[in-house]
Inverse folding.
């Protein structure tokens, strides 16, 4: 039997994982791959739980499943219940929308099937702006809990029947590969929730940790004989890759789901193996701050999303003063995590001689506070809204209707290709007269009606599509829900390939996330030298400033790029927008379309780019 020891370096890996997850939610432009902190957690859990069980089997030839469950519950439930109790007590008095489906969330989280509940009932795109859930992250706890429940039952059977560690490990590796294949095969950008939250499609990370526990035993002698320099190279290489991947791999990258996350988990397992095998490597990842973060990583993970969601919604952080807002949120998260950690620690404090009375007092005080919180919690539990919000359902229906309308019109336009050619309307006496009920002149209206334009965008453009099509009847509109500029290069290439790129190009992207100048370069290539107009974004999210600054930079870098400042024009005009403050009501759609048309025509006129030169 091998003696178990506390491995300091594991706290270091936990710290890397939780910092990655927090920064992914706080500042995704800085750490776009921070979500990979979750598979890193999974690898660590798979290893630790299997190592605990194997040590017990090696010493006693049996596993006390009841005791294992008891210890796991003592670690998982107190902090989780504290989170649910506090949020359920406070949120009703801030905004009840934060408690959408709270009863189902509490039940599915405590019964460990939250990930499957989210697959079926989770947050839709249409709710993320008006009603983002503070509890979405609880899915990962359910996957780990399912592993904790089943593995202590399966492992003893395998150990009793098969006995040979190598043979058992072959089976573990087989399950690992199968899980990775399932993620790759089932991945669909349109239905990401199934592979992202599914136990079967995420199991490979945990099973790599399981396999590591076996392999450190199977190849113990070989590892002892391996040169320290070789071990050092493996450790440093794997550690650097674990950290670097957090900074480069976006969650929208298809590679991540077709082998990328699998590879990352493998690298994480190799790094963990070196930390466990070489005490010096473990010590290198340990200092008081890292140990503090690592030991409280579970509580930090629990609190990070509720704090971020509520803070961003209340403060309406749009990306300005990033350092200040990130710092404030980090402080709130760490303070709440420390309080939760101390509450749980207080409940677990053992009675020792002189401290018996003090321990009783701590537990009594915690119990009194919990009982007091049960009153507002019960209120929140009862009044928590259920199902999709009415606004989200209404918006979804409208956008789907607009999408169908665009597809129908696109088919009609394809029947008459001549209709897409830009024609020059003759100058008329009433050109400078305003159209009744519009900001456009009659001359501008006629020019817009003859313009061959291509508009590519996200749900903001889609919400304005009917009004936009009225002003630009010859336009080709390619708009879709959830689209991000950084993933839109194939869309632009396809439009060019199908010869649907108009004389003027409009880009309405940025609602769903930030992008880089390199992403801009990729979509500009298919456009060529045609005039292209970028509409900046109005969305109270941390990426708003980054998006709008990048578009200003784009106008500076490209002579044919022009900025339409929708943000400043529409700022404060709440009546133009849906409840989410992003998508437009019919009146807002009309104003948006007219404003965009006006800015395009005025710019073309200033640049002396007449319809004659465009055609």
């Amino acid at each position: 039997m091998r003696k178990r020891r506390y491995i300091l370096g594991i706290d270091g890996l936990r710290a890397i994982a939780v910092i990655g997850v927090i920064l992914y939610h706080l500042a995704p432009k800085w750490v776009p791959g921070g979500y990979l902190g979750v598979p890193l957690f999974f690898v660590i859990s798979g290893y630790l739980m299997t190592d605990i069980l194997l040590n017990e089997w090696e010493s006693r030839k049996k596993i006390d499943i009841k005791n294992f469950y008891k210890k796991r519950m003592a670690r998982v439930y107190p902090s989780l219940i504290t989170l649910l109790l506090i949020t359920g007590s406070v949120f009703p008095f801030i905004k009840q929308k934060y408690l959408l489906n709270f009863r189902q969330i509490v039940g599915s989280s405590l019964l460990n099937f939250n990930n499957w509940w989210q697959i079926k009932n989770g947050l839709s795109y249409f709710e993320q702006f008006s009603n983002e859930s503070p509890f979405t992250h609880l899915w990962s706890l359910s996957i780990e809990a399912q592993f904790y429940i089943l593995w202590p039952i399966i492992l003893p059977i395998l150990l009793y029947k098969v006995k040979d560690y190598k043979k058992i490990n072959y089976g573990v590796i087989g399950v690992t590969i199968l899980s990775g294949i399932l993620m790759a095969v089932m991945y669909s950008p349109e239905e990401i929730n199934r592979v992202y939250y599914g136990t079967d499609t995420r199991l490979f990370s945990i099973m790599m940790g399981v396999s590591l526990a076996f392999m450190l035993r199977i190849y113990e002698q070989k590892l002892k004989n391996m040169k320290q320099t070789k071990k050092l190279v493996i450790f440093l290489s794997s550690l650097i890759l674990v950290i670097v991947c957090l900074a480069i791999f976006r969650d929208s990258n298809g590679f991540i789901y077709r082998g990328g996350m699998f590879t990352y988990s493998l690298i994480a397992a190799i790094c963990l193996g070196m930390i466990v095998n070489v005490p010096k490597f473990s010590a290198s990842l340990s200092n008081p701050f890292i140990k503090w973060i690592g030991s409280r990583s579970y509580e930090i993970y629990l609190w990070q999303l509720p704090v971020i969601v509520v803070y961003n919604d209340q403060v309406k952080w749009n990306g300005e003063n990033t350092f200040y807002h990130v710092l404030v949120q980090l402080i709130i998260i760490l303070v709440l995590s420390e309080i939760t950690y101390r509450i749980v620690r207080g409940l677990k404090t053992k009675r020792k001689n002189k401290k018996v009375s003090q321990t009783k007092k701590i537990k009594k005080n915690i119990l009194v506070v919990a009982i007091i919180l049960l009153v507002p919690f019960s209120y929140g539990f009862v009044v928590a809204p259920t199902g999709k919000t009415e606004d989200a359902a209404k918006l979804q229906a409208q956008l789907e209707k607009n999408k169908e309308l665009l597809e129908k019109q696109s088919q009609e336009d394809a029947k008459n290709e001549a209709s897409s050619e830009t024609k020059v309307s003759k100058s008329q006496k009433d050109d400078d007269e305003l159209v009744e009920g519009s900001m456009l002149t009659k001359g501008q209206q006629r020019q817009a009606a003859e313009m061959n334009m291509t508009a590519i965008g996200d749900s903001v453009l889609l919400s304005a599509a009917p009004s936009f099509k009225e002003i630009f009847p010859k336009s080709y509109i390619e708009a879709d829900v959830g689209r991000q500029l950084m993933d839109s290069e194939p869309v632009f290439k396809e439009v060019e390939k199908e010869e649907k790129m108009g004389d003027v190009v409009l880009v309405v992207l940025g609602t769903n996330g930030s992008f880089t100048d390199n992403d801009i370069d990729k979509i500009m290539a298919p456009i060529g030298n045609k005039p292209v107009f970028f509409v900046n974004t109005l969305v109270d999210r941390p990426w708003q400033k980054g998006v709008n600054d990048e578009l200003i930079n784009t106008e500076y870098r490209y002579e044919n790029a022009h900025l339409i400042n929708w943000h400043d024009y529409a700022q404060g005009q709440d009546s133009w927008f849906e409840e989410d403050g992003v998508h437009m009501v019919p009146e807002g759609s009309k104003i948006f379309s007219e404003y965009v048309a006006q800015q395009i025509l005025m710019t073309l006129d200033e640049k002396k780019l007449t319809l004659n030169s465009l055609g």
